[in-house]
Amino acid sequence: MANETKKPALYLAEYDTPNAIAQAAMKVRDAGYKSWDCHTPYAMHGMDEAMGLKPTRIGVLSFIFGMLGVATAVILIQYTNAFDFDFLSIGAGYPLIVGGKPPGAFPSMVPIMFELGILLCGFATLFGLLGLIKLPMHNHPIFASDRFEAATDDKYFISIEADDQKFDLDRTRALLEATNPTYIELVEQEVL
Amino acid sequence: MSYDAPIKELGETSLLPEGTSAHDITETIAGVTENAAPRGWWLLFLLSLSALGAMTAALAYLFVQGVGVWGNNAPIYWAWDITNFVWWIGIGHAGTLISAILFLFRQKWRTSINRFAEAMTVFAVLCAGLFPAIHTGRPWFDYYLFPLPNQMDMWPNFKSPLMWDVFAVSTYLTISVIFWYVGLIPDFATLRDRSKNLTRKRIYGFFALGWRGAHRHWQHYERAYLIFAGISTPLVLSVHSVVSFDFATSVVPGWHTTIFPPYFVAGAVFSGFALVMTLMLICRSIFKLQNIVTIRHLDLMNKFMLGTALLVGYAYAMEFFIAWYSSNPYEQWVFFHNRLGWGQLDSSGNWGPLWWAYYAMVFCNVIVPQVFWFKRARTSVPIMLIASVLINIGMWFERFVIIVTSTYQDFLPSSWGMFHPTAIDILTYVGTFGLFFTLFLLFVRWIPMIAIAEVKGNLPGAHPDMHAIEAHDEAPDALGAPVPAE
Predict the structure, then answer these.
(1) Which of A82, B244, B422, B484 could form a disulfide with B264 if both were Cys (CB 3.0 to 4.6 A apart)?
(2) How far is Cα B23 from Cα B15, in angstroms, rounded to an integer?
(3) In this complex, do B212 and A125 lie within 8 Å of one another by their Cβ atoms?
(4) Among chain B residues, CA nearest to A25
(5) What is the DSSP string of B197-261?
(6) What pLDDT, in 10s, does the model give residues B33-75?
């Protein structure tokens, strides 16, 4: 389209080897940037340290929801199989004596407590993951770069986003150039 | 040398051939979904689709006529349908074992086969779930299995192992699908970025969720993956234990044994590995993946099969020992007469009529895998193909033996009977292969069948050598020059 106005979105620097990107990441980290990232085709070990990231806390969410699942199973089984009061007209329970065991027997609850715990834990981990990494997001400006397609193949990239407080067209470029990238690009996005 | 390189002092070598690059891996695996399907694929696909059609017809006939079209009748109410259920769900277990348990044990060789095995899990559990659903006789009332509020105030009996099964199998299917999909996200992104036309880009892009390989994402992703592996491991053990409770909590001789949970789990892993092996050998040759699934991977899988075969063999022997040691005449009748064919002959002077099923099972599951003691057998594709097919047959017979030989002659001689499968029994079973292979062939054609990102992470030098970089950083004059790769 003609007359469209664009603004810088991020700097993209490409590297060929894991060591090169790890070294570059340390420099960007030490320069004090916050809104930046490394893009690698696979999970690269040692990068948490190189980027100065705090450990992830997704496990807390999984644990809480796993325990909620266990509690759900206990309430569900006790309500339906051990008592006969009607809660909010959803239907009263139906106490049954099977095999001479008391209606609310604990041992026979264990398998379903376990399964529901796992089920809720799994859902919490999936949706917790997507929430923490803010996906799905199909319109990230980084996709405007053709070169970036290699990030899921065999190249390593560092991106520094324009909304970082320290972002500066010249100084950020100089910093990235000092890390010996094989390629450097200013990716722009349309101003809406 | 990086943290993840093979440890030379231990004699470890790289699993993939020397000089394989990350780009080669992308090309080989993503290429399968981009190139035209080989002729072999079409042949198998049409064959599977026909079998799926046969299953649909068999099910339609079943729904119209009722379960009387099967050979199930007093005293054998669980016959082929439950045999098939246990068999299919057991097949699925190897997928979870390979993807979750081997992940926890940091067995890097799993990366070449885990995606494949996970897909197999999902499809096998679908096939398995079909059987209890149609076994109810009136499957349109299957929603009674779930605790839904209803006008009759009727609830499921949660003390029944069959109810535990409903929860175990549906949780297993859900978690397997999630685990599989989470593993696929980065690989869908690879396919998206390689797509030449817009339709492909949009479809793969949709499933890739906008994945951009960011390390801030990988960090959470890796932990989530570890959690999935951590919860799948006890889950897979629980699912087949619960399946075995269907039998073990009853009083039927031959079923009422405490060895069942571990015995079922070992058998499940064993049969699943065998099916992964069969499928892998076929796909590997059709799609030319010999460089990614190497003979070393197959060798390791064969060792696993040998190990689980020994466990299963031990369980068979222990069942007999307990039957003898218990001095329980019913237990002994089931094991020595119904299964081995020994002892008192029946009225027409024959052995127990199903002895051959027991011997077929022992031959396939215990004797055949012994060839894997020999390296030559473990590295020979024809031998492992034949052995893996035989093991699958043997494991089907194991479930048949457990279900039918325990029930056709139990406590009361006046209620003894015999089971004969009908054509619909056979058609339904064969038809589930159609369902399984149709889904599986679509999977290998459109979805990366090997975990691209994980295989790349196992290449030598795939991870930065942090020791060298730190040492280098202490010499500030060398600012900017990257440490050369190994």
Answers:
(1) B244
(2) 17
(3) no
(4) B215
(5) SHHHHHHHHHHHTT---BHHHHHHHHHHHHHHHHHHHHHHHHHHHHHHHHHHTS--TTT--TTHH
(6) 888 888 888 999 999 999 999 999 999 999 999 999 998 888 8
Instruction: List C-alpha distances in Å: B36 to A188, B397, B446.
Output: 37, 39, 11
Q: Which domains does chain A have, with CATH numbers?
A: 6-41+154-190 (3.30.70.260), 58-132 (no CATH)
A35 in reach of chain B (CB within 8 A) = no
The percentage of chain B sitting over the pLDDT mark of 90, rounded to a whole number, equals 52
pTM: 0.90
In chain B, what are the domain boundaries?
A: 18-460
**Interface probe with A: pick from B26, B96, B220, B226, most Cβ of A within 10 Å:** B220
Q: Under a CB-based contact definition with an 8 Å cutoff, are residues B6 and B14 in contact?
A: yes
- Name the 3-class secondary structure at A95: coil
In angstroms, the CA B474 to CA B2 distance is: 19
What is the C-alpha to C-alpha distance for residues A44 and A42, in angstroms, rounded to an integer? Answer: 6
Q: Taking CA atoms, what residue in B is nearest to A98?
A: B159
Question: B14 phi and psi, to 5 degrees?
Answer: -65, 140
Chain A: closest CA distance from residue B166 (Å): 9
Contacts of B467 in chain A (CB under 8 A): none
The span from the CA of B433 to the CA of B428, in Å, is 9
Q: At what angle do helices B114-135 and B423-446 cross, to 10 degrees?
A: 150
**Helices A110-132 and B161-194: angle between axes, nearest 10 degrees:** 20
CATH H-level superfamily of B18-460: Formate dehydrogenase/DMSO reductase domain (1.20.1630.10)
Structure tokens belonging to residue A150? 């290699």
d(CA B24, CA B201): 21
Selecting from B182, B193, B481 the residue whose C-beta is nearest the C-beta of A180 gives B481
B483 touches chain A (CB under 8 A): yes
Chain B residues in contact with A31 (beta carbon < 8 A): none
Looking at this protein, which amino acid is placed at residue A116? L
Angle at B172 between CA B458 and CA A71, to 5 degrees: 115
Q: Does A108 touch chain B (CB under 8 A)?
A: yes
> At B476, is the pLDDT very low, low, confident or very high (cuts 50, 70, 90)?
very low
% chain B with pLDDT above 70: 92
- The ipTM assigned to this model is 0.92
Q: Does B162 touch chain A (CB under 8 A)?
A: no
Residue A59 touches partner B, C-beta closer than 8 Å = yes
B109: its two tokens: 């060789």
